[in-house]
Write a structure and sequence with these properties.
Radius of gyration: 35 Å
Number of helices: 19
InterPro entries: UPF0662
Structural class: mainly alpha
Strand order of the largest sheet: 1-2
Oligomer: single chain
Distance between the termini: 51 Å
Strand content: under 5%
Order of helices and strands: EEHHHHHHHHHHHHHHHEEHEEHHH
C-alpha cells in the first residue's frame, strides 16, 4: 500500500501507545496528550478539567495496559486479566461519576462530553474486543463493540436515505439478541447480589454503571433503527417491489464503479475493457428501463392502489425519492462512460474548471477514496482468512481508521462550497458507500466470532475441518472400506487425548469454549459411527445380491456333484477358486468338499470388518 497507517493482509495491525504529559495544569484545566489517536498513530492535545486529571491518568494507564495485551501476540489473552482490568475500569468510572456530581453540587457547569468520555469509549471498545477474543461473546460488555459498529451503519443509512428492509433486518435481529444478553446479565447480577451481601455498594454501583453505558448505547441504536424502519410505512405495498429494485440497481452500479478501477488496472487491452463496460452499462440501462415502465407516462409518477386520501402527501414524498433514484442511476451510468477514458474513478472531475481550493478538495477526496479502497480489500481478505489469522482485538485498529476517515469525510463535506457540491457529489457518494461496505465487513468479522477462547481456536479449527471432511465423505455415497476412516479417527483420537477429565487445559487454566469443543468432538464421533453403519448396510446388501446370483445360476448352468447334503455345483467350486486364488487348483479335490460344506461359506459376516476396527 502506498499510504501509512493501514495494514496489509499479511501484517498485524497495531495501535501506537501514547505519552501522558505530566507537566500540565492550570487552576481549572490541564492540557495533556491522550489516546485520541487515529490509525495513523498521531496524538492530539486535549483539555482535561483539573478535578478530573487524576481520573484521566488512571484511565490512560488502563488504556496502555490494554494496548500491551492487544499487541503482544506471544501470549494468549487470559480472561482473568480482562476481568481484573474491567473491574478496575468500572471503579474509575464510578469515581468519575461521583466527582462530577460533586462539581454539579458546587454549581459548576460541566462541559460534556470531554476527553475522559472519549477515552472511556476507546477503553470500552478494547475491553469488548478482549472479551470476544476470550470467547465470552454472550457476556454483556462484549456487545459494546457490536453496538458501536451498528450505530455507525445506521447513521450512514440515515445519511444516504436509500436502503431496503433487507438492509435493516439483520441489524434488528442483532439488536434483539444484544438486548436479551444485557437483560439476562442484569437479572443474573441481581440474583447474585441477593445471595451475597458482602460485596457492598461498590459492586452494585459498578454493575449500574455497566448497565447504564450499555443500555444508553442500545437505546440510541434502537431509536435510530425504529426511525429508519418507520420510513417504510410511507411505501405502499404494491410499490415496495419497484422501490427495492431501484435500491438494488443503484447498489449494483456503485459496486461496479468501485470494482472497475481494479479491473482496469489488471485488464489486457483497452478495447476489451471498453466492450465489457459497454455490455455492463447496457445491462444496467435495460434493468432501469423495465423499472421506468411502471411510471405513468402522462405525469411521470408511480401510482398505487393502496393509497388513501390521507396518504397522498406521503406518496408525493415517495415519488420524489423514486424519481430521484432513477435520475441518480442515469447519472452514475453516464459517469461510468466518462471515466472509461480516464485512469481513476474520480478522474472525470478533472475536466471541470475547478478553483485552486476545489482542486485541493478533489485531491483530499481522492486520497480518502483510495485509502478506503485499500482498507476494504484488506478486510475482505481478512474475512476469508479470519479463522487462522484474526485476533478480534485487531479490529480495534480498523475501527479507529474508519472513524478517522469518516471524520475527514464530514470535514470535507462542510468545506465544500455550494457551487462545487454537484461536482463532488459522486465522490461523496462513493466514499460514503465505501465506508458502509467497510463497516459492514467489520460487523461481519465481529459476528463471525465463535464462543471459543483464542487459546482453543487451533483445536476448534481442526475439529471444524474434520467435521466438514466427514460430512463431505458422507454426501458422496459414504465409504468404500474402513481404511478411508483411519486418518479421521487418528486425528479425532489425538484431539480427544488432549482432554484431561473431559476438559481442554492450556497453561494450567481452563479456557472458555469447553462446551463448544466437546459438542463438536462428539458430533464428529457420531458422524464416524454413522459412516460405519452405512458401510455395513451397503456390504450386507451387496452380499444378498451375490447370493441371489449364485442361486439363479444353479438351475441351468450348473452340474451337480455328489449326493444328499454334501452336494456342490461346478459354479460353487469355481467361486471358491476365485476367492482363494493363491492356492493351487489341486487343493480343491472332491475329497475335501465335505470339510468345507458345513461352514456356510456363502454368507459373509459383518464381523470380519468389525474385527479390524480398533478405533
Amino acid at each position: 500500500m502506498t499510504y501509512s497507517g493501514l495494514v496489509t493482509p499479511h501484517s498485524r495491525p497495531s495501535t501506537p501507545s501514547f505519552a501522558t504529559n505530566s507537566n500540565a495544569a492550570t487552576a481549572t484545566t490541564a492540557t495533556t496528550t491522550g489516546p485520541l489517536n487515529s490509525g495513523s498513530g498521531s496524538t492530539h492535545k486535549v483539555i482535561v478539567p483539573s478535578y478530573e486529571k487524576p481520573i484521566y491518568e488512571s484511565l490512560s494507564q488502563i488504556y496502555k495496559a490494554l494496548l500491551e495485551l492487544k499487541n503482544n501476540r506471544n501470549k494468549y489473552i487470559n480472561s482473568k486479566q480482562i476481568y481484573k482490568i474491567y473491574h478496575e475500569f468500572l471503579d474509575i468510572l464510578n469515581e468519575l461519576k461521583l466527582t462530577r456530581k460533586d462539581e454539579e453540587l458546587k454549581g459548576i457547569t460541566l462541559n460534556l462530553p470531554n476527553t475522559n468520555d472519549l477515552i472511556t469509549d476507546d477503553i470500552f471498545q478494547l475491553l469488548s474486543l478482549c472479551f470476544v477474543t476470550c470467547g465470552l461473546t454472550k457476556f454483556a460488555p462484549a456487545t459494546y463493540s457490536s453496538l458501536s459498529t451498528v450505530m455507525k451503519l445506521l447513521n450512514h443509512l440515515k445519511e444516504c436515505k436509500v436502503y431496503t428492509v433487507e438492509d435493516l433486518a439483520p441489524i434488528g435481529i442483532r439488536l434483539a439478541e444484544i438486548r436479551d444478553i444485557v437483560i439476562s446479565t442484569s437479572n443474573y447480577e441481581e440474583d447474585d447480589d441477593d445471595e451475597d451481601d458482602e460485596e457492598d455498594a461498590t459492586r452494585h454501583s459498578n454493575h449500574q454503571i455497566e448497565e447504564t453505558l450499555l443500555r444508553n448505547k442500545l437505546i440510541k441504536c434502537e431509536t435510530l433503527y425504529q426511525e429508519l424502519e418507520n420510513n417504510f410505512k410511507n411505501v405502499p405495498k404494491d410499490l415496495e417491489p419497484t422501490y427495492n429494485k431501484l435500491i438494488e440497481l443503484r447498489k449494483n452500479i456503485l459496486n461496479y464503479m468501485i470494482s472497475y478501477k481494479d479491473e482496469k488496472s489488471n485488464a489486457g487491452k483497452n478495447l476489451i475493457k471498453h466492450e465489457k463496460l459497454t455490455v455492463k452499462i447496457n445491462q444496467f440501462k435495460a434493468e432501469l428501463k423495465k423499472i421506468e415502465q411502471y411510471r405513468d407516462e402522462t405525469d411521470m409518477k408511480f401510482h398505487s392502489n393502496d393509497v388513501s386520501d390521507l396518504d397522498e402527501q406521503k406518496l408525493e414524498s415517495l415519488q420524489a425519492i423514486m424519481n430521484g433514484l432513477i435520475d441518480e442511476c442515469n447519472n452514475l451510468l453516464g459517469d461510468l462512460l466518462v471515466q472509461d477514458d480516464s485512469e481513476e474513478i474520480s478522474s472525470s472531475l478533472s475536466s471541470l474548471n475547478l478553483s485552486e481550493e476545489s482542486s485541493e478538495l478533489k485531491a483530499k477526496y481522492d486520497s480518502i477514496y483510495h485509502q478506503l479502497q485499500d482498507l476494504k480489500l484488506t478486510l475482505e481478505n481478512l474475512l476469508i482468512t479470519r479463522r487462522w489469522t484474526l485476533r478480534e482485538t485487531d479490529l480495534y485498529s480498523y475501527q479507529k481508521q474508519l472513524k478517522t476517515f469518516d471524520e475527514q469525510r464530514l470535514n470535507l463535506v462542510n468545506q465544500t462550497n455550494k457551487d462545487d457540491t454537484k461536482a463532488f457529489k459522486k465522490s461523496q457518494l462513493l466514499i460514503l458507500f465505501l465506508l458502509r461496505r467497510c463497516y459492514g465487513l467489520v460487523y461481519k468479522l465481529l459476528e463471525s466470532s465463535e464462543p471459543v477462547s483464542e487459546s482453543l481456536t487451533p483445536i476448534h479449527n481442526q475439529l471444524q475441518t474434520v467435521k466438514r471432511c466427514l460430512l463431505e465423505l458422507k454426501r458422496v455415497d459414504g465409504l468404500n472400506n474402513l481404511k478411508e476412516l483411519y486418518p479421521f479417527q487418528f486425528k479425532l483420537a489425538s484431539l480427544d487425548n488432549l482432554r484431561q477429565d473431559g476438559k481442554f487445559i492450556v497453561d494450567g487454566s481452563i479456557p472458555e469454549g469447553q462446551g463448544t469443543l466437546n459438542a463438536l468432538l462428539a458430533e464428529c464421533f457420531d458422524i464416524v459411527q454413522e459412516l460405519k453403519i452405512e458401510l455395513e448396510e451397503k456390504e450386507f446388501e451387496n452380499g444378498d445380491e451375490g447370493e441371489d446370483d449364485l442361486t439363479g445360476g444353479s438351475f441351468t448352468n450348473s452340474k451337480t456333484i455328489g449326493n444328499g447334503n454334501n452336494e456342490l455345483t461346478d459354479d460353487d467350486v469355481e467361486i471358491k477358486r476365485n476367492r482363494f486364488h493363491d492356492f493351487n487348483e489341486a487343493d480343491y479335490d472332491l475329497d475335501s468338499e465335505p470339510d468345507y460344506d458345513d461352514d456356510n461359506d456363502y454368507s459373509i459376516s459383518g464381523s470380519e470388518y468389525e474385527g479390524n476396527d480398533y478405533y
